[in-house]
Amino acid sequence: RVRIPLPVSNILWEHCIRLANRTLVEGYANVKKCSNEGRALMQLDFQQFLMKLEKLTDIRPIPDKEFVETYIKAYYLTENDMERWIKEHREYSTKQLTNLVSVCLGSHINKKARQKLLAAIDDMDRPKR
Fold first, then answer.
1. Structural domain total, the chain
2. Do 15 and 69 fall into the same domain?
3. Of 7, 52, 82, 106, which sits 20 to 30 A from 75 (CA to CA)?
4. Residues 103 and 55 in one domain
5. What's a Gene Ontology MF term here (predicted)?
6. In the chain, which residue ranges form alpha helices assigned H by DSSP?
């Protein structure tokens, strides 16, 4: 057994938690269909994950907790709110944003509105290239 000093242990926990949270969002971005019940389950699963983390580690606040919560809450946005949200949340990848538009609004908006939102995502991505 090798003893790991507490500061080093905390850094390792922080990186593991951050990676797990980023992986959760990436997993949600791979969803092909999502009902209201599915969205509620995403929130419930994440809350369970946080409860278990709080028992395992003393790291507070939980790294990237808001990153996951914000993404899940975006599934509930309306078309008008989604356009504003996309422009305000550049921390998410193009794939993650595109999935939100396709999955959560895909069946509720017309093709023209969907194309407008996808164009907003593409415009946001252009300066990075």
1. 2
2. yes
3. 52
4. no
5. SNARE binding
6. 6-28, 36-56, 65-74, 79-88, 94-99, 111-125
